[in-house]
User: Fold this.
Amino acid sequence: MLANLLESVRGPWPWWVGGVAIGAVVPLLLFLANRHFGVSSSLRHVCAACLPSGPKYFRYDWKKDAWNLFFVAGVVIGGWLAREFLMSSPGPVIGQTPAPAPMPLDLFSWSALGTGKGILLMVVGGFLVGFGSRWANGCSSGHAIMGLSLRRPASLVAVIGFFAGGLFVAWLVLPKVLR
Assistant:
């Protein structure tokens, strides 16, 4: 019976299923748990747990927000479960042919990390994402999902900045990098 159920839900789901699921997280966290959604701060909690006598930035009581680590672990485990049990074979379809990977492996793989483009995209890009998340006091999802639902003006400014930066990179920077 479980195999039949899993087979019936394999493949792409409608867009609105994800929207409803993400939208349900906000009231559940706010009203039932009195917590705020945010994933980018979890890396700080991991560093604080692993480096208790490390830099001053990591010396705080991370245990009061340990629930966030379980939330992030659930996101990772849920992603793995969806990939293993809910994804249809052979994978995503772009146009009429199955895509070999959801991203170009010549840019986003361990072997690409040693190339100039790989370093630019993964290392420099990763640093900029981390720096931007810290500077903006949260990541794009936290501001867009939680901050906007709480009607925070700073989150509105941050989301506008994220979208403007994304459009700038997608239309002006990536075409030059991908040449």
About this structure: The mean pLDDT is 80. Residues 111 and 118 are 9 Å apart (CA to CA).
